[in-house]
Amino acid sequence: MAPTGSLVPDRRRLRVGLMGGSFNPAHEGHRHIALLALHRLALHEVWWLVTPQNPLKPVAGMAPFAERLAGAREVASHSRIRPSDLETRLGTRFTADTLLALRRRYPTFRFVWVMGADCLPEFSRWHRWKTIFDTVPVAVFDRPSYSLGAMSSVAARHFAKNRVPARAAATLTMRTPPAWAFLHTRRHTLSATRIRHEAASGARAGQRMRG
Ligand SMILES: Nc1ncnc2c1ncn2[C@@H]1O[C@H](COP(=O)(O)OP(=O)(O)OP(=O)(O)O)[C@@H](O)[C@H]1O
Ligand SMILES: O=C(O)c1ccc[n+]([C@@H]2O[C@H](COP(=O)([O-])O)[C@@H](O)[C@H]2O)c1
């Protein structure tokens, strides 16, 4: 059940970054951290887990799943970045459940959860958030304006003792969880929120021109 097109046999000790997201829509910021993750975490692949619905985000304004997945496939355009509908196929909605299911399904793979710094401040609101840290190592990538909030967050403080230095990030997939790193990297300013706002104001301007 690996992402469509995966030719890698299940038995290999594949090092895989799992990057969950709404991808509403996918953009260069996603690609930016996926490429950094491949390099800095010494991964074979990054799987973009396009979520059927983020449990903490409103349903209103969420583009249809098929549209978000198609957009992710277009933006990824890299043989080692694999957009996937795994959560839909597994029937999981919460990250903790997805990770446990993936670990069961691919017992020989080395997974690491990859996310941007904006996720850390709200992480303690995620369903069974401590289980996530206990299931796979976690890599957090810098994102403009979120670094300070991320490091003072409930999750960062709770797992402070389990943090490994960024220079050791390439060893994360080999570590027994909980283990996590914060990577101060080149940052990318783009967000899906901005793209949606720009699309909406473009549409309004078009309406004014026509009216
Ligand atoms: N510019 C970026 N820099 C770092 N991480 C990013 C960036 N854009 C997205 N991410 C990360 O990618 C994952 C999926 O993000 P998501 O699909 O929600 O995009 P988003 O731009 O944050 O969307 P929205 O603005 O709608 O919240 C998250 O872990 C998020 O932190
Ligand atoms: O499991 C949860 O409770 C949970 C709460 C919020 C977000 N997530 C996951 O976090 C990932 C990033 O979500 P998003 O919408 O910020 O791109 C995506 O895989 C979501 O399913 C998961």
Automatic annotation (TrEMBL):
It catalyses: nicotinate beta-D-ribonucleotide + ATP + H(+) = deamido-NAD(+) + diphosphate. Residues 18-197 form the Cytidyltransferase-like domain. It comes from the Bacteria. Pathway: Cofactor biosynthesis; NAD(+) biosynthesis; deamido-NAD(+) from nicotinate D-ribonucleotide: step 1/1. Keywords: ATP-binding, NAD, Nucleotide-binding, Nucleotidyltransferase, Pyridine nucleotide biosynthesis, Transferase. GO terms for molecular function: ATP binding; nicotinate-nucleotide adenylyltransferase activity. SUPFAM superfamilies: Nucleotidylyl transferase. Its EC number is 2.7.7.18. The keyword Nucleotidyltransferase applies. Catalyzes the reversible adenylation of nicotinate mononucleotide (NaMN) to nicotinic acid adenine dinucleotide (NaAD). Belongs to the NadD family. This is Probable nicotinate-nucleotide adenylyltransferase. It comes from Oceanibaculum pacificum. The gene is nadD.
